[in-house]
Specification:
Two copies of one chain form a homodimer. With about 230 residues, chain A is an alpha/beta fold. The first copy, chain A, is built from six helices and eleven strands. Helices cover about 30% and strands about 25% of the residues of chain A. At the A-B interface, helix 2 and helix 6 of A face helix 2 and helix 6 of B. Chains A, B: GO terms for molecular function: rRNA (uridine-N3-)-methyltransferase activity.
Amino acid sequence: MHLFYQSQLPEIKSLDQDESKHCVKVLRRQAGDEINIIDGKGTFYKAKITESHPKKCEFEIIETTLEKTPVFKRHLAIAPTKNMDKMEWLVEKATEMGIDEISFFQSFHSERKVIKIDRLEKKVISAMKQSLKAQKPILNEIISYTKFLESVQSENKLIAYVDFENKVHMKNELNTQQDTLILIGPEGDFTPEEVDLAISKGFKKVSLGNSRLRTETAALAAVHLMNLAME
Amino acid sequence: MHLFYQSQLPEIKSLDQDESKHCVKVLRRQAGDEINIIDGKGTFYKAKITESHPKKCEFEIIETTLEKTPVFKRHLAIAPTKNMDKMEWLVEKATEMGIDEISFFQSFHSERKVIKIDRLEKKVISAMKQSLKAQKPILNEIISYTKFLESVQSENKLIAYVDFENKVHMKNELNTQQDTLILIGPEGDFTPEEVDLAISKGFKKVSLGNSRLRTETAALAAVHLMNLAME
């Protein structure tokens, strides 16, 4: 099934230029054909094309279906890798698996201070369409680690950092139905001071297992765990 | 910690040309310096450089440590995606998380019939060094789905294919300590006949959750589940 995206539904009942071109020129849909559209806010629309214009394809709504909302909100916060491809890959895969919010922070060992949110948004929309999801994850602009910790709220706050004396796997901290936030550090990891700061803000240290994972792999493993807790 | 790779240890006590160059020219290690080497067969070596030649860096072994062997063998078999980048990504991430064997098969909806194993081997070795593992996963050349099913052996044989009437999550089929094999179908999925054939060979149908995942994402989720079952 092909999904089109129109974030201003139900007010605007036409596809934007790129989507119209894809619909009319590439997929050759005509007036009278049914198409499926998502609004990124949790609703699937079944619609009928009324005007197959290649720059502004108009439609009327036939049916709306609400996406099932997750049992708890899944929030990933990460110190972005130097290589942006890895972050693009991560937001794509996290969207496929299921994520509600992705934040970026700059910590002591961070190698990247700037994030192109627009590019990541495109990856997210494409992944959302591919995996048949109607709710677009929120992507937040990068801020400092300290500011992030001060501003963020979540019922279940976790930080991926192995406490060798008291190792707790993240999967054992997801038994509840509480909104969950997991912090993933940069390639050089969190500093002990950064970990202490998180602890003072109510975060719990968790392990992602015995393997040494790269930043983006650790992040995806954490996203997978949050989704597994809902199954 | 930097790891070097020499698959012919303990017989050959020198690094190959590429590794020697990296060790001597890039990292500027000298005679008397200690280095860490893996053999891809499960042993970590601590060694001391005896001759820091940039094309053949020689060393003597100081200490050997055996890697902990997994509780059960983790075997992934997959119909490769058209885009080889995704398979390179997958073998890298699977190696990081932990995998013992990766097989490739060609099924009805497969879009790719050829695999460059050499390129994948390089990705695997690099990921193994990065994630501090000493055991190199086995990569098998691509064969037909039918031949694969006839030749393969595993105690716990699973196929990722959702049986909507009797949905069983893969995580619930991993409670034992049996060697496990999971089959991941191509982008167009398995045909019902292919699923029936697997069932007749003793495979069980399992789900990877409610999200529609791309082939490579499904494969990585399955690898993650096999590793979680060991934690």
